[in-house]
Amino acid sequence: MRVNCLHVAIALIALLVRRSVGFSSTTRGDTFRSSYIEISATAANDDRASYIDNDATISEDNPLRVIIAGGGIGSLVVANSLCINPKMSIQVLEKTDQSKRLAGPIQLGSNALAVIQEMDSSIFKNITSSITSIGDKVNGIKSGITDDWYSQFDLASPCGDIPYSGVMERQTLQQIYFDALPQGVVEYGDAVVSYEINSDGYGVRAITESGRIVHGDCLIGADGIWSSIRSTMRDEPVRGEGSGCTYSGYTVFDGELAYDSIDNGEVGYKVYIGPKQYFVACDIGNGKYHWYAFMAKPEGSSIEEDKPNGTSVYLQNIFEGWAHDIKDIIQSTVEKDIGQRDLYDQAPSKKWTDGNVALLGDSVHTMMPSLCQGGCQAIEDAYVLVEELNSVSSRDEIEIKLRTYARRRVVRSAVVQGLSRFASDIIIRGFDTPAKIRKIEDGTIKFENCNYAGVVTKLLQPILPLFFGIQFTFLFSGWRNNSALDLNSALRLLLVGGAILLICSGIVEESALFAGLGFEGLLGLDLDINIGSVFKTSNDVFDISDIVDAFVHKLVPNES
Question: How much is the pLDDT for 485?
Answer without folding.
Answer: 47
